[in-house]
Design brief:
Blueprint lengths: L4 E2 H8 L6 H9 L3 E2 L3 E3 L2 E4 L4 E2 L4 H16 L2 H7 L3 H13 L1
């Protein structure tokens, strides 16, 4: 079983040029690192074998739209989302997590 390491250490091992901690935290929060890092207290722990996964821009756009709809809580927006199965999946995941 692999022992988890900090995001900073993972970044040093995987990339030649270091990334800022805010970038690394964003990657951890938004699923750019697979398998997903675990938040332990106030810091993320990640497996050394984890990989950076380039975000799917179409899915990210839909995720942002889903979050906006969730925050606005507009019924007409939810009705518009019903036409897009992927958007419904994103919204369903978000509501289950809440």
């Amino acid at each position: 079983m692999e022992r988890s390491i900090s995001l900073r250490e993972w970044d040093k091992r995987k990339f030649e040029k270091p990334h800022s901690m805010s970038t690394l935290r964003k990657w951890a929060r938004e699923g750019y690192i697979k398998p997903q890092p675990e938040l332990v207290g106030s810091r993320y722990e990640v497996l050394p074998s984890a990989s950076y996964v380039r975000p799917n821009s179409d899915r990210m756009t839909k995720l942002r739209q889903a979050k906006t709809m969730q925050q606005a809580n507009l019924s007409e927006s939810l009705n518009a989302a019903a036409a897009d199965p992927e958007m419904l999946e994103i919204l369903d995941d978000e509501f289950e997590a809440a």
